[in-house]
TrEMBL record:
Leader peptide range in chain numbering: none
Domain Peptidase M16 C-terminal residues, every copy: 184-367
Name used for this protein in its record: Zn-dependent peptidase
Pfam families reported for this sequence: Peptidase_M16 (PF00675), Peptidase_M16_C (PF05193)
PANTHER family assigned to the protein according to its UniProt record, in alphabetical order: METALLOPROTEASE (PTHR11851), ZINC-DEPENDENT PROTEASE (PTHR11851:SF134)
Domain spans labelled Peptidase M16 N-terminal: 66-178
Origin species: Jeotgalicoccus aerolatus
Length: 432
């Protein structure tokens, strides 16, 4: 009989409970207890993303082809016995996976055969199977995927904006890689990256739903104790120094579009702020951008009335360990006017007392309402808990962070995070 080794944290302000156990091999497992829920949702995630192309593992330095994390994600479903996707479906589960700049996540949801599906997930992720024939076939499949994305105006707009902003950072690398980089991927590279980054102490598992806690932890522990040999990850990642200035201030492309598209990128390099400061800045920027450019803003109404923007207009702030920038995009017949107006508004807001406490409190209530509603979804909880964990945050501390943000935070972070003199403009227009 196994002894319970997990700890439990109660978030009384949200009536939420999280159990955590670190397995003997280093794997961290969190069970988010949602009593009465029929669906169970699991994510199994490696701290391994598209930026991890230069690293030192167990004393040896490696450079691997761009796009290999995404390629590896694809190949983990392909086993000697066939496609694991089909096995999940046969057992009543819906499975998926994705790769981002800093993580690769495998997931499933189910209302039946939970432990069978959990075992399938762990075996799939932990036991690699690559052959030259299967790798060569996948190269052809992903090459077609890359070509398809190259013809997608929205996709190209986003990635060309990143490429224009970042000089050296691997953040600008397309997650799928390039036609050239993909052609250099081999089974040996895949085995190397799997051994390095899929080590248990470099992974985290999140389970959300109604579980028998002792039984579930014991099942995972027994599996981990019997898994194939592994080595501690001992990963040292290398990232080149990134200058503050953008690489290219303007780029124009021709693609098959009916209306020109434009994206503005405002670069602001990551700094040495602690996780708490970064989380506050992330939320404060969300509030600031919505106050200035959201649908309730007088600036938004003016731009809409004058036909400079339509409902395609969107904006976002990204705060990551390796990336910090603001993006704004729209479909418009006059991209130059759009750019001029956006930069004018930003500079004008910085010069006057635009932000108000009333609007900030309104936004806090709105965000809290959305947040609390989302906590009813096991899918949202498992995915967001994973993301927050990787960013060094706690999903269940969001209310305290929101409550702590002041009007001064909003002003300060808006002024320091958006520099109109350090901006890129990328335009996609129709073929002439």
């Amino acid at each position: 009989m196994m002894t319970n080794k997990y700890t439990t944290e109660h978030y009384d302000h949200l009536d939420e409970v999280v159990h955590k156990q670190v397995m003997d091999n280093g794997l961290e497992v969190f069970i988010i207890d949602k009593k009465g829920y029929n669906k169970k949702f699991v994510t199994y995630t490696a701290k391994y993303g598209s930026v991890d192309n230069h690293f030192k593992a167990n004393g040896e330095v490696h450079h691997v082809p761009d796009g290999i994390a995404h390629f590896l994600e694809h190949k983990m479903f392909d086993k000697e016995a066939g496609d694991v996707f089909n096995k999940f479906s046969e057992m009543g589960a819906s499975a998926n996976a994705f790769t981002s700049i800093d993580r690769t996540s495998y997931l499933f949801s189910t209302t039946e055969n939970f432990f069978e599906n959990l075992d399938l997930l762990m075996n799939m992720v932990e036991i690699p199977y690559f052959t030259k024939e299967k790798v060569d076939k996948e190269i052809g499949i992903i090459n077609e995927e890359i070509k398809m994305y190259q013809d997608n105006p929205g996709y190209r707009l986003y990635h060309e904006t990143l490429n224009a902003m970042y000089e050296n950072s691997p953040v600008a690398i397309d997650i799928a890689g390039t036609l050239e980089s993909i052609s250099n991927i081999t089974a040996d590279y895949l085995y190397l990256c799997h051994k390095t980054f899929y080590a248990p102490d470099n992974m985290v598992m999140i389970l959300a739903g109604d579980f028998e806690i002792d039984e579930t932890f014991n099942y995972i522990e027994a599996h981990q104790n019997n898994r194939p040999d592994y080595e501690p990850s001992n990963i040292e990642r290398y990232f080149p120094e990134e200058p503050y200035a953008v690489k290219t201030s303007k780029k124009v492309m021709e693609l098959a579009v009916s209306t020109p598209k434009v994206m503005l990128g405002f670069k602001a390099l990551p700094d040495d702020s602690d996780n708490e400061t970064r989380e506050i800045r992330d939320s404060a920027m969300l509030f600031a951008l919505d106050m200035v450019f959201g649908e309730q803003s007088p600036y938004y109404e003016d731009l809409l009335d004058r036909g400079i923007i339509d409902d395609s207009f969107n904006f976002a702030y990204q705060e990551e360990t390796l990336a910090r920038h603001t993006l704004m995009a729209a479909e418009t017949d006059n991209p130059e006017t759009f750019t001029a107006e956006i930069t004018r508004i930003i500079d004008e807001v910085k010069e006057k007392d635009f932000f108000t406490e009333k609007r900030l409190q309104s936004q806090k209530r709105e965000l809290m309402g959305d947040y609390l509603t989302s906590l009813n979804s096991p899918e949202y909880i498992a995915n967001q808990y994973t993301k927050y964990y990787f960013d060094g945050y706690d999903l269940y501390n969001v209310p305290k962070v929101i409550d702590s943000i002041t009007l001064e935070d909003v002003k300060r972070y808006f002024n320091s995070s958006i520099d109109t003199k350090n901006m890129v403009e990328v335009i996609v227009k129709a073929y002439e």
